[in-house]
């Protein structure tokens, strides 16, 4: 379970996240949706502490971290939270000079100090899970965008994070390649992977999210089950946004 309490994020004078409180139950998929610039990416980056919230608190499993303006957060505390997360980016961000399997093994070997053989076994298992076993030794540049993203998902899952964070995982892909990534994420969701996904792909959100958080201008406009938000949202603003699906 992840709990975000009263998260605020400022960049200089700009308040980019305003008093965000969200609970993410274990084994569920939460979609962060809303217009561009609403704060989806920043909120995701606050969960893995690529951005340090200005104030508020984050609980991830047994770790709780509170943020106080002007007070530095210790590196050890950041690492305790960050190590429980895996991140998938819009532009895949595979290491270009490493093959698919080396990308998946990298963190296990360099950060977690696993023996290479054990890391290779784990990476093979994950590449199989995402349907990429046939491309183990391929270079990223030779893979389609959908294939690169599937390798990136395997890499993010390698250290068995408590939560998988995905920032616009299908936005760089055309519909066909998008579909293969949605299939993989859907399969992970069915297996009970906890995920938080920022997306303006409402097709993706409606297919696999259990819960939806609608963010606009740094504030939560509405939050609820995906079924409710996609079929009977309460707020006019959410209704207008959802009506763009069809
Ligand atoms: P979304 O992902 O929903 O499109 P973002 O989280 O990327 O929204 O951005 C929310 C707001 O925060 C935007 O106004 C953006 O310009 C601002 N922002 C994001 N990162 C920074 C930064 N590093 N410095 C200053 N402003 C930022
Ligand atoms: Mg974004």
From TrEMBL:
Its localization reads: Cell membrane
Q: How does it sit in the membrane?
A: Peripheral membrane protein
Q: Which Pfam families match?
A: ABC_tran
The entry's keywords: ATP-binding, Cell membrane, Membrane, Nucleotide-binding, Transport
Query: In what residue span(s) does the ABC transporter domain sit?
Result: 2-242
According to the record, the segments passing through the membrane are none
The molecular function terms in GO held by this entry are:
ATP binding
Chief location of this protein within or outside the cell: membrane
Checking Gene3D superfamilies in the record gives: P-loop containing nucleotide triphosphate hydrolases (3.40.50.300)
Q: Enumerate the PANTHER family for this protein.
A: AMINO ACID IMPORT ATP-BINDING PROTEIN (PTHR43166), L-CYSTINE IMPORT ATP-BINDING PROTEIN TCYN (PTHR43166:SF35)
The record's similarity note reads: Belongs to the ABC transporter superfamily.
What is the protein's name according to its record?
A: Amino acid ABC transporter ATP-binding protein
């Amino acid at each position: 379970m992840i709990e975000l309490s009263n998260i605020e994020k400022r960049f200089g004078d700009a308040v980019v996240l305003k008093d965000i409180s969200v609970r993410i139950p274990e084994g569920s998929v939460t979609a962060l949706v809303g217009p561009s610039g609403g704060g989806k990416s920043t909120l995701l980056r606050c969960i893995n502490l690529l951005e340090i919230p200005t104030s508020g608190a984050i609980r991830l499993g047994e770790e709780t971290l509170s943020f106080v303006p002007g007070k530095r957060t210790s590196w050890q505390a950041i690492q305790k939270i960050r190590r429980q997360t895996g991140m998938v980016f819009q532009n895949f961000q595979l290491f270009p000079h490493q093959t698919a399997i080396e990308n998946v093994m990298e963190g296990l070997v360099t950060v977690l100090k696993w023996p290479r053989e054990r890391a290779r076994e784990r990476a093979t298992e994950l590449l199989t899970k995402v349907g990429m076993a046939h491309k183990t030794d391929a270079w990223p540049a030779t893979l389609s965008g959908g294939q690169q993203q599937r390798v990136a998902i395997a890499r993010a899952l390698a250290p068995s994070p408590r939560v998988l964070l995905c920032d616009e995982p299908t936005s760089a892909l055309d519909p066909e390649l998008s579909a293969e990534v949605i299939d993989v994420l859907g399969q992970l969701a069915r297996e009970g992977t906890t995920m938080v996904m920022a997306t303006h792909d409402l097709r993706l959100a409606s297919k696999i999210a259990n819960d939806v958080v609608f963010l606009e201008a740094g504030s939560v406009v509405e939050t609820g089950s995906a079924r409710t938000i996609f079929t009977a949202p309460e707020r006019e603003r959410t209704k207008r946004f959802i009506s763009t699906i069809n």
